[in-house]
Amino acid sequence: MNVNGWIIYNGHLSGNKFLDFAEWFHEAAQKQGIETNLYKNNDLLTYLDDRRLSLIGGNSLPDFVIFTDKDIYLARQLELLGIRVFNPANAIAISDDKIATYQVLAQHHLPIPKTIAAPKIFPGSATVELENIRSIIDQLGFPMIIKEAFGSFGEQVYLVHTEKEMMDKVREIQERPFVFQEFIAASSGKDMRLQVVGDHVVAAMTRYASNDFRANVTAGGTMEAYQPSAIERKIAVAATKAIGADFAGVDLLFGPDHTPIICEINSNAHIRNMYDCTHINAADFIIRYISETLTNEGRS
Ligand SMILES: Nc1ncnc2c1ncn2[C@@H]1O[C@H](COP(=O)(O)OP(=O)(O)O)[C@@H](O)[C@H]1O
Ligand SMILES: [Mg+2]
C-alpha cells in the first residue's frame, strides 16, 4: 500500500519505553510494507498566524499519524492540516481525563462505578468546602475510591475507609481534578484488560495483585491470558467507540456476579505487556486496521 505515516512519541519522558512503543509500531508497519518515520513530539512545532497554520520541522506531511503521545495540541494541529491521526486528538484527550471518560460513558449508558466529580478548586484557595459531603458518603459508602482525573499505573488512585481519611486525601489533592467513586469490592486486586481494534477485541488478559486493591500495583502480581465473554467484548468495543477511539486498551472491573464494569480506557495502551502475556501482537492488527480505514475513508 502506497501510504506513508509518522509515528509520534514523547520526547521528554526519560527511559526507552516510549521509543520502544513507537518502534513496535514501526516494525509492524514495515512487515505490511508501510513506510513510517518516527518523530518526537518536540521535533515538531505548531505554527499559527492569521494566514496559515503549519508545522515547523518534519519532512513533507504524511498520509497518517500514529500518535502515541498525549500532546493534544500537536495532534489537533495535524488534524487541522488534514491528516488522519490514530487515535484522533479528541479521543486521546477524553481517554487521558478520567472525568471526561466517565461523562462520555455515562452518556452512552455504559456500565461504570457510581462516580461523583469533585467541584473545581482553584490553586491557592483555602481548604476545600464540601457542603455535600454527607450525600457523597450516602451515595458511595465506605470504603470509597478517590481517583485523580489524570494518572496512571494506579499511582493516583486511593482507597479511603473513613470520613477523616477521605477529607485528608481531599485536602492533599484538592488542587487537581478528581472524583469520588464507588469501590467495586468484588474486583479488589483484579481486573481485566481488553485490547480493542476497530470492532474487535484482539487480545485480553486478567491482572491480579496479591498485595493491593489496585490490579496494576503490585510486587507479586500476575497477568494471565484471558478469553473474554461476549458481553465483556461488546462493552469494551462500545466504550472504545464512545470516546471516538480507533483502538484502545479497555480495563474492566469484575462487578457482582461477574458483571463487567468499565474502569478506564487507555488510548495508548501498552501493547507490549499484552504481547508478553498473550503472544498476540496488537500492533499487527492496528496497522491492518489503519490501512483498511485509510482505504475506506478514501485517503489512499
Ligand atoms: N472503582 C473501583 N473499584 C475497585 N477497584 C478499582 C476502582 N477503580 C480503580 N480500581 C483499581 O485500581 C486500578 C487503577 O485504577 P485506574 O482507574 O485504572 O487508574 P490508572 O490509570 O492509574 O491505571 C485498577 O486497575 C483497579 O484494579
Ligand atoms: Mg488502569
Describe how the helices and strands are arranged.
Layout: E1 4-9, H1 17-31, E2 35-40, E3 45-48, E4 53-56, E5 64-67, H2 72-80, E6 84-86, H3 89-96, H4 98-107, E7 115-117, H5 133-140, E8 144-148, E9 157-160, H6 163-173, E10 178-182, E11 190-197, E12 200-208, E13 222-225, H7 230-242, E14 247-254, E15 260-266, H8 271-278, H9 282-296
Parallel strand pairs: 1-2, 1-5, 5-6
Antiparallel strand pairs: 3-4, 7-10, 8-9, 8-10, 11-12, 11-14, 12-13, 14-15
Helix pairs in contact: 1-9, 2-3, 3-4
This protein binds adenosine-5'-diphosphate and magnesium ion.
Structure overview:
By secondary structure, the protein is an alpha+beta fold. It folds into 3 domains: 4-86 and 291-296, Rossmann fold, CATH 3.40.50; 93-111 and 186-269, 2-Layer Sandwich (D-amino Acid Aminotransferase, Chain A, domain 1); 115-183, Dna Ligase, domain 1, CATH 3.30.1490.20. Helices cover 32% and strands 27% of the residues. It has helices at 17-31, 72-80, 89-96, 98-107, 133-140, 163-173, 230-242, 271-278, 282-296; strands at 4-9, 35-40, 45-48, 53-56, 64-67, 84-86, 115-117, 144-148, 157-160, 178-182, 190-197, 200-208, 222-225, 247-254, 260-266. The strands form 4 sheets. The chain has a 5-stranded antiparallel β-sheet. Strands 2-1-5-6 form a 4-stranded parallel β-sheet, with helices on both faces. A 4-stranded antiparallel β-sheet has the order 7-10-8-9, with helices on both faces. Helix 2 (72-80) links the parallel strand 5 and strand 6. Helix 1 (17-31) packs across helix 9 and helix 3 (89-96) packs across helix 4. The protein is globular, with a radius of gyration of 20 Å. The N and C termini lie close together (8 Å). Residues 113, 145, 147, 151-154, 156-157, 181-184, 187, 191, 213-216, 251, 253, 263-264 line the site of adenosine-5'-diphosphate. It comes from Lentibacillus populi. It holds the Pfam family RimK. InterPro entries: ATP-grasp, ATP-grasp_RimK-type, ATP_grasp_subdomain_1, Rp_bS6_RimK/Lys_biosynth_LsyX. GO terms for molecular function: ATP binding; metal ion binding; ribosomal S6-glutamic acid ligase activity. Keywords: ATP-binding, Ligase, Metal-binding, Nucleotide-binding.
